[in-house]
TrEMBL record:
<keyword id="KW-1133">Transmembrane helix</keyword>
<feature type="transmembrane region" description="Helical">
    <location>
        <begin position="168"/>
        <end position="187"/>
    </location>
</feature>
<feature type="transmembrane region" description="Helical">
    <location>
        <begin position="96"/>
        <end position="116"/>
    </location>
</feature>
<feature type="domain" description="Potassium channel">
    <location>
        <begin position="164"/>
        <end position="215"/>
    </location>
</feature>
<keyword id="KW-0812">Transmembrane</keyword>
<feature type="transmembrane region" description="Helical">
    <location>
        <begin position="16"/>
        <end position="34"/>
    </location>
</feature>
<feature type="transmembrane region" description="Helical">
    <location>
        <begin position="193"/>
        <end position="214"/>
    </location>
</feature>
<dbReference type="InterPro" id="IPR013099">
    <property type="entry name" value="K_chnl_dom"/>
</dbReference>
<feature type="transmembrane region" description="Helical">
    <location>
        <begin position="41"/>
        <end position="60"/>
    </location>
</feature>
<feature type="transmembrane region" description="Helical">
    <location>
        <begin position="66"/>
        <end position="84"/>
    </location>
</feature>
<keyword id="KW-0472">Membrane</keyword>
<dbReference type="Pfam" id="PF07885">
    <property type="entry name" value="Ion_trans_2"/>
</dbReference>
<protein>
    <submittedName>
        <fullName>Ion channel</fullName>
    </submittedName>
</protein>
<feature type="transmembrane region" description="Helical">
    <location>
        <begin position="128"/>
        <end position="147"/>
    </location>
</feature>
Length: 218
């Protein structure tokens, strides 16, 4: 029987259930994306929700580590850009997208580390793995969305898909799970290569994740 490494339960509700809380926030943000074409303030709510998600990841990172400092710097830059956009009406869409990709990647790495480090609860390890998996889908979806904006026609899209981000997050999810319904398909070389890589990475992650969790619970 494998011994499960545990660490003392930290004080405070957030420290105890940090990854479960972050997973809930992320799931709500993904659902919110589906209403960006129907609810006028959905985009703003999602943007600020993403801001607090990044802040929560910094709080969930182990204290007194370089990783926490490295993650905190782009989070501060993110809040500065958000403030410039909201209060000074400065156009920072491109910079925000690039910084969001960096923060999503960093958050994903931090969540994946929980699969290999001691935790106080195996449920938190499970939550962090699912959280990272959904972040991976969001990151790839953001990349697909920016590719289509910069090079229109990179994807074969339904007629009702305009410049919304949600369809590309959806496409990312079904690509990563290798479902592939076919209503959105890559039409250029770069997105084709990226979708192939995502399918491979998504499949490998599921295999590693399930093996790791089952192995820890034996």
């Amino acid at each position: 029987m494998n011994e499960v490494n545990e660490v003392p339960v930290p004080d405070g509700f957030f420290r105890t259930h940090r990854w479960s809380i972050l997973l809930g926030v992320l799931a709500a943000l993904i659902l919110m994306d589906g209403f960006d074409d129907r609810v006028e303030i959905a985009d703003q709510v999602a943007l600020w929700g993403l801001s607090f998600l990044f802040l929560g990841v910094v709080g969930a990172t182990e204290r007194n580590t370089a990783l926490r400092l490295v993650m905190a710097v782009p989070v501060i830059a993110w809040f500065i850009l958000i403030s410039m956009s909201e209060f000074l009406d400065v156009k920072v869409d491109g910079s925000l997208s690039g910084l969001a990709a960096i923060l999503l990647f960093g958050s994903m790495i931090i969540s994946f580390r929980q699969l290999f480090t001691p935790v106080h609860s195996e449920y938190e390890r499970l939550s962090s793995g699912i959280f990272g998996y959904l972040l991976m889908a969001m990151l790839w979806g953001l990349i697909y969305w920016r590719i289509e904006i910069m090079n229109p026609g990179s994807f074969n899209l339904p007629e009702d898909v305009g410049s919304q981000r949600a369809p590309f997050v959806y496409f990312s999810m079904i690509t990563m799970t290798t479902v592939g319904y076919g209503e959105i398909t890559p039409a250029a070389s770069l997105p084709r290569i990226l979708t192939g890589m995502q399918a491979i990475v998504g499949t490998m992650f599921v295999a590693i994740f399930i093996g790791r969790i089952v192995g820890r619970l034996k």
